[in-house]
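Mods, move this if it's the wrong board.
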Amino acid sequence: MSKNLTKRTINAFSVLSLAVCIAFFVYAYNRHLFTSLEALQAYIAGFGAIGALVFIAFQAVQVVVPILPGGLGCLGGVLLFGPWTGLLYNYIGICIGSITAFCIARNCGKPILYSIFNEKTIAKYETWTGNASQFAKWFAIAIFLPVAPDDFLCYLAGTTQMSWKNFVAVILLGKPANIALYTLGLNTVFHQIVSLMH
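Not the wrong board. Structure tokens:
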């Protein structure tokens, strides 16, 4: 698959996913799912265990194929399942997706970066890969802080000499704080917006 075709496909998925999210937001808002925690949890509970599995799968896929900002999924986890269960589901899904992205890049090499991400992002972070120990340090810091493009960095790590052991350790240990900080901020903003709508 050519680079242009891959990017067009991802862009199409992004537009479609955004449309689905907007439609669901309107549907959920009209049924007070965002203003009543009990109503929202009852709605999700209606799907049983499959609801949690589908959400975890969604979180994993959105790391491998970054079609939506990851923060939307993190916020969704907390709204749908509550703060602690939502955080756990976010963590499981994102860790699975991060490890999958690393695996894909490890097998496909640098061409996969140019098929998915823009060259400006690649050029900005590729300078980190010149020194293996320095890359490991910067990668760990970036994964811990909720400001860097984590999805891209997982792919980039797969094109370096970073070991599986080190990568998995950084993801498993660094992601909880990252997800918690990111989700807390988004959750606060979301509730402020909802309060202004009343």
